[in-house]
Amino acid sequence: AKSEGMGRCAYFSPEVGVETRERTRLLHGLRDAFQHERLFLAYQPQVDLASGRVLGFEALLRWRNDDGTFVPPDRFIPLAEQSGLIVPIGQWVLRSALHVLAVLDREGFPGLRAAVNVSVVQFREPQFVESVDRALADTGMSADRLELEVTESVCVLGQESVAVQLGALTRRGIQVAIDDFGTGFSSLSYLDRLGADRLKIDRSFVQSLEQECGGARIAEMMIALARRLGMRSIAEGIETEAQRQRLAELGCDEGQGYLFGRPMALDDFKAWLKAWQPG
Ligand code: C2E
Ligand code: CA
Ligand code: CA
Ligand code: CA
């Protein structure tokens, strides 16, 4: 699905017809799902790798059809971006995640952090920073409880305006993580200037840890790079204890993955928080 944006089959008109109709259908469905509250969030824990302590969650968007089946985010998020629908949806995600922090504060899990994915399309909106301010004020959350996950594409596109927006956000104490690090093309000097708080090491590098021939070296360099730039590192997609241990040895600060917990509905996440034993 990732390749769809790359102009796949652009010259084969019959397929383009099918493709376009399929996308139009999906976009109608997405609009409808958003309006009728059939989008919801799943919460995946993020933990301190050394101690196992829970630091917070990443909010991940889910679309459930009436028949109980799910449309995967890799299919509908690109569509939401192309149509601009990601702007109101993203705003809803942000508010919902902050609201959940307030709920968890009250219910005995205080001080967690919410990590929210932000599309480059949202960043291009001049009112983006203002809308984040409003979401924080409306939910009564302090800025340091929020982390925005941005991909390297955010760093590459429209560099100056993005840097200005990111600066405004970090000055407020909002944390910024560079998502899927190592899979894009941002330059190291740009990475330095961004002043992000966290480098999020992509799952593909975590998976290659177990390969003998130097698989750990890339992850090791990324962790060292984060440290040199004064950033913390978090690894995503940790599935095995061996991966957790290796990453901890390499000095990776934080982790997220099925080993700790899958993305869960709120009630399941609360139960998970209650049952979780660090270390
Ligand atoms: P991502 O930001 O890289 O999110 C991590 C993905 O890895 C999630 O997929 C998560 O369910 C999955 N994952 C976590 N731990 C493991 C693991 O141990 N093993 C494996 N195999 N997978 C793991 P998901 O939920 O399908 O989301 C896919 C992508 O959709 C996200 O990738 C993100 O780019 C995008 N996305 C999700 N929610 C939002 C949102 O609210 N806004 C925007 N703009 N994008 C979103
Ligand atoms: Ca993410
Ligand atoms: Ca990621
Ligand atoms: Ca990823």
From TrEMBL:
Keywords: Phosphoprotein. The keyword Protein biosynthesis does not apply. This is EAL domain-containing protein. It comes from Thauera sedimentorum. Residues 23-277 form the EAL domain.
